[in-house]
Amino acid sequence: MAREVDLEAFAAAWTDGAFVLDVRQPGEYRDGHVPGALLAPLPSLGVTPPKLPAGRPVYVICASGNRSKAAADLLAVVGGGVNGGADIYSVAGGTRGWIRAGRPVATGTEPGSVRPV
């Protein structure tokens, strides 16, 4: 099973260039996401798992932490080392917590277009 990290630990990992997988729906992602996060909606994970970076931890995020926990557990089981056996984490508090903490947010469909909060 995947482990859960709090927003502080995630923010430190993100600052260091962590790989972030956003498992919300496209509209939610478009409205605001962690800059650099790759969109991979939860329903698609069992059908088409995303290509994850080999040997790097993966941080899975959603709106609040529920879908990310399910997705991280799914990736840990069905992925069977999809990223070279690196750790997969669910981000507790999700994007809502990220925004409440005043962290940077990107909008649109591309992972990198940043707007201040």
Describe the structure concisely.
Pfam families: Rhodanese. With 117 residues, the protein is of the alpha/beta class.
Give the topology, please.
Elements: E1 3-5, H1 7-15, E2 19-22, H2 26-31, E3 38-39, H3 42-45, E4 58-61, H4 66-78, E5 88-91, H5 94-100, E6 105-106, E7 114-115
Parallel strand pairs: 1-5, 2-3, 2-4, 4-5
Antiparallel strand pairs: 6-7
Structure description:
The chain has helices spanning 7-15, 26-31, 42-45, 66-78, 94-100, and strands spanning 3-5, 19-22, 38-39, 58-61, 88-91, 105-106, 114-115. Mean pLDDT is 87; it is low at 113-117. Strand 6 and strand 7 (114-115) form a beta hairpin. The chain has 5 helices and 7 strands. The strands form 2 sheets. It has a 5-stranded parallel β-sheet with strand order 1-5-4-2-3. A two-stranded antiparallel ribbon has the order 6-7. It has a single domain (18-111), classed as 3-Layer(aba) Sandwich (Oxidized Rhodanese, domain 1), CATH 3.40.250.10. With 117 residues, the protein is of the alpha/beta class.
Supply database-style keywords.
117 residues, alpha/beta, Oxidized Rhodanese, domain 1, 5-stranded parallel β-sheet, two-stranded antiparallel ribbon, 5 helices, 7 strands, disordered C terminus, Rhodanese-like_dom_sf, GlpE_sulfurtransferase
Determine the CATH superfamily.
Rhodanese-like domain
Instruction: Please indicate the count of domains.
Output: 1
Order of helices and strands: EHEHEHEHEHEE
Unreliable spans = 113-117
Percent of residues in β-strands: 15-25%
**What is the structural class?**
alpha/beta
On the 0-100 scale, what is the average pLDDT?
Answer: 87
Based on Cα principal axes, name the global outline: globular
Work out the helicity level.
25-40%
In total, the number of strands is: 7
At the fold tier of CATH, the topology name is Oxidized Rhodanese, domain 1
Biggest sheet: strands, sense, closure? 5 strands, parallel
What is the annotated CATH architecture? 3-Layer(aba) Sandwich
**CA-to-CA gap between the ends?**
33 Å
According to CATH, what is the class? Alpha Beta
* Continuous helix count: 5
| Major beta sheet, strand line-up | 1-5-4-2-3
- What is the radius of gyration? 13 Å
Domain Rhodanese: 16-107
Organism: Streptomyces laurentii
InterPro entries: GlpE_sulfurtransferase, Rhodanese-like_dom, Rhodanese-like_dom_sf
Pfam family, one: Rhodanese
